[in-house]
Design goal:
single chain; alpha/beta; Nucleotidyltransferase, domain 5; five-stranded mixed beta sheet; 11 strands
Length: 323
């Protein structure tokens, strides 16, 4: 039987490095977070020019403000009781962060909370606990692969043993490693990137070879799931777990393709994901090797769920952990 949602209707707008998203949710009678609506809009805030200059560019901000108008309107149309705006890696490391916060507050009458990497990781840990997939699991390893950063969390008996954020998002890597989005990656480059990623992920401190369930979050993982579901010939809902062997095959295929070939081979993959998809696959493959896992699961219960649960818990007061 479907439980009736109760408590405040909470809206969370999440400004990421590649997309901006909204979640509107309420708690049901069992204390679970019930999503009412989720939407995502492309809005890339990391580019070679913005990386070089150290701040988000005017054209990128113009696009961001247009997307925020749509997202705030959605919250208003849904009669949300609380609306909270959070931002992650792209704005977190931008030199014009304070200017962006001031403009958003003036335009939309809402404060923008720029999360630290640690706050982001901890809120992701809060969010993933709402997934029925992990009910009863005592040991979890969770990763959220975004455009700007990679959050990695380990928890035992419902409590995080550590939560870290590292700048290994696909867009950040593409700019740092000077990866051409148009051309295939050479075998020597793939080997070089694999060595680099394995080394960087190993430094995080995840335990290897445990019985922990590995959970993957993020838009990149969503599209990876769509691709693998099609390759298996099954529905999206029947493709929740992915093997290391599948990821390795997908990595080799995507790295060997040009941008045009990727879009043709993977029709579910948008162009604003296809350009960095080989790096997504490389990160996931090396992370699985670091922790010694032969498979991982996809979850939708992400950062926005963690923010929403904090808002509902503290009723929007300054006690929220992201303030």
């Amino acid at each position: 039987m479907i439980q009736q949602a109760s408590g405040p209707k909470v809206a969370v707008i999440d400004i990421g490095s590649n997309t901006s998203k909204i979640l509107i949710s309420q708690f049901d009678q069992n204390g679970s977070l019930a999503p009412n609506l989720e939407k995502s809009f492309p809005c890339r805030l990391i580019s070679s020019e913005s990386q070089k200059r150290g701040f988000i560019l005017p054209d990128q901000l113009k696009q961001l403000f247009a997307v925020l108008e749509q997202l705030v309107s959605i919250s208003e149309e849904e009669s949300s009781d609380h609306l909270t705006l959070v931002a992650t890696e792209a704005i977190r490391r931008s030199a014009n962060q304070e200017e962006i916060k001031a403009v958003i507050e003036e335009k939309f009458a809402h404060k923008l909370h720029v999360l630290s990497g640690q706050q982001e990781a901890e809120l992701i840990a809060d969010g993933v606990r709402f997934d029925p997939l992990i009910k009863g699991e005592t040991h979890l390893q969770v990763f959220d692969l975004g455009g700007g950063s990679l959050e990695i969390i380990e928890s035992m008996d419902g409590h995080s043993t550590f939560a870290k954020s590292v700048p290994l998002g696909a867009l950040s890597l593409a700019e740092r490693l000077n990866v051409s989005s148009e051309n295939p990656l050479s075998l020597s480059k793939v080997e070089e990137f694999n060595d680099y990623l394995f080394s960087e992920i190993s430094k995080v401190g995840l335990t290897n070879g445990t019985t922990a369930k590995l959970i993957g979050l993020g838009g990149a993982i969503f599209f990876m799931r769509k691709i693998l579901a099609e390759q298996r010939g099954v529905g999206f809902e029947d493709c929740k777990q992915f093997t290391l062997e599948e990821i390795t095959v997908l990595t080799e295929a995507s790295c060997g393709m040009s941008m045009t070939e990727r879009i043709s081979a993977f029709p579910h993959l948008p162009s604003d994901r296809a350009d960095v998809f080989p790096l997504v696959c490389l990160v996931v493959e090396q992370l699985m090797k670091v922790v010694g896992k032969e498979h991982f699961y996809h979850s939708f219960c992400n950062l926005r769920y963690g923010v929403a649960s904090n808002i509902a818990k503290f009723k929007g007061s300054p006690g929220c952990s992201f303030d």
